[in-house]
Design brief:
This protein is an alpha+beta fold and about 180 residues long. It has 4 helices and 10 strands. β1 and β2 form a beta hairpin. The longest helix has 21 residues.
Length: about 180
């Protein structure tokens, strides 16, 4: 059996690295993302990979993100049957797997529209998604909003911190 020097040194089952801007299916995205555990956050929005900067600023993201958590956390405490999550992976459809800043959902046993996979991911559309947007405004108000609306997210909040504006969209009930 003859082997060329090229085939001897090539990995047999190498998974390509996840790169910002890649066009992938959700399956391909998950495979690459899981093979790169050092990546903190990556999202698949309308089939395109978005990998935000690893460093987050305090006033333009950290504190507003915390404020959303506190506000929606208080709502959860006062509203039985609801739950919130901080940057969870949400499996929306075959081209969308975002990690929104905060989600508010009605628990499935209380009539909510999401299910939880056996490996603890959200599948389907949370009732409300909130994003803190400084450098990501065009994505959050563009492709993400479109994907969220198409997949049944009922309400969507985008806090444009640099503009000192908050957009609250009613995307419509899916039931």
């Amino acid at each position: 059996m003859i082997h060329s020097s090229l085939t001897r040194h090539q990995p047999k089952f190498a998974i390509p690295p996840l790169e910002n801007g890649d066009r992938l299916s959700r399956h391909e995205f998950e495979q690459r993302y899981n093979a790169m555990p050092h990546i903190g956050k990556a999202e698949l929005i309308e089939g395109i990979v978005f990998m935000p900067a690893a460093a987050l600023r305090f006033y333009s993201h950290g504190r507003p993100h915390n404020d959303l958590n506190v506000w929606l956390g208080m709502y959860r405490i006062l509203t039985p049957g609801t739950d919130i999550g901080d940057t969870p992976t949400v499996q929306l459809d075959e081209e969308n797997e975002p990690q929104p800043d905060v989600v508010l959902l009605i628990q499935p046993q209380c009539g909510g529209q999401v299910i939880f996979t056996d490996d603890d991911y959200i599948q389907g559309a949370p009732e409300l998604i909130a994003e803190v947007a400084a450098s990501t405004v065009s994505i959050d108000l563009g492709a993400k909003k479109t994907a969220y609306q198409r997949n049944g997210v009922q309400e969507y909040i985008v806090w444009r911190v640099l503009d000192q504006q908050m957009d609250w969209f009613y995307l419509g009930a899916t039931r």
